[in-house]
Structure formats: C-alpha cells, structure tokens
Task: inverse folding
C-alpha cells in the first residue's frame, strides 16, 4: 500500500475518534445549554440548533420575511434540565395555505450522529490491529522468520503476496 493511503487512514481514524468524543460531550452538555445558527433571507429563515440531546433543523418560508437578512448565532442556558431521553429521528411539515407560510422541521438525536461516525472509526481501528506485521503471514499471522519468501505458510498454506 502506498504511504499516502496509510497516512489518510490514520488521519481518518483519529479524526473520527475526536469527532465522536466531541459530539458525545455535546450530547451531555446540550441538556443544560443549547447553541445554534440562524440564516435569514428574503424567502424566510433556516436554523440549525443543538440542544436537549439532538440537532434540530428548521426551514420556515414566509413571503416578505420581516426579520431582515443575514447570519446570526444564538446561545441559551436551560432553566430546567430535561430528563435523559435518547429520542428517534423525526421530520415534520406544516403549511398555512392562506398566508403562504411553510414550516419544515427535522430532528436528529446526537446519538445517531455518534453511531454513524463511531462504526467506521471502530472498523478502522480494528482492521489496523489485526493487520499482519512485517515477517508474519498475511493469512493467519504466523511468524515466518527463517522461511523463504516463496514458501507457503506452514500453518494455513497462504503464499505471501
């Protein structure tokens, strides 16, 4: 394998581990405080907010948005801590035909994000642990010291590649 492949693998697995730890910490912290970003435009606004153990995305379309335009951040502490809930992903849509208002919400629990990152990260760590080291058989890990490179493995019969 080329050296750049091993470097990219190492970067991917450690980045995945750090991301999982940060999101897990956010999951715990988000029960006491929330943070988000709001984008407001002519057509309405869109928000992304992390709080209460989930990420919530809201798209609200409204003709002639009275809130102006731009990007803003929001941060809030919750006065009461909610009970611990894992939750499930959800999506909702509502429309007010007479006024032209449309509201779309998607909720994604942070444990889903951690699971989606943790599975490939764990696989990368696991596959690196079981990879054959130099001088070992790639099939079974048998120590090939003293054997010719063209000789098949006496344990499993695999030929080194």
Result:
């Amino acid at each position: 394998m080329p050296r750049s492949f091993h470097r990219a693998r190492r970067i991917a697995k450690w980045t995945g581990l750090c991301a999982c730890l940060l999101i897990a910490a956010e999951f715990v912290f988000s029960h006491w405080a929330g943070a988000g970003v709001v984008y407001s435009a002519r057509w309405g606004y869109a928000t992304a907010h992390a709080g209460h153990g989930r990420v919530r995305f809201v798209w609200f379309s409204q003709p002639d948005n009275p809130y102006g335009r731009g990007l803003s951040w929001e941060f809030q502490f919750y006065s009461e801590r909610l009970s611990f809930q894992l939750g499930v992903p959800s999506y909702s849509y509502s429309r007010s035909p007479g006024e032209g208002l449309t509201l779309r919400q998607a909720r994604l629990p942070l444990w889903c994000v951690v699971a989606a990152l943790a599975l490939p990260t764990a696989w990368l760590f696991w596959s690196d642990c079981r990879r054959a080291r130099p001088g070992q058989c790639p099939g079974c890990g048998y120590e090939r010291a003293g054997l010719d490179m063209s000789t098949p493995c006496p344990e499993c019969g695999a030929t080194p590649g």
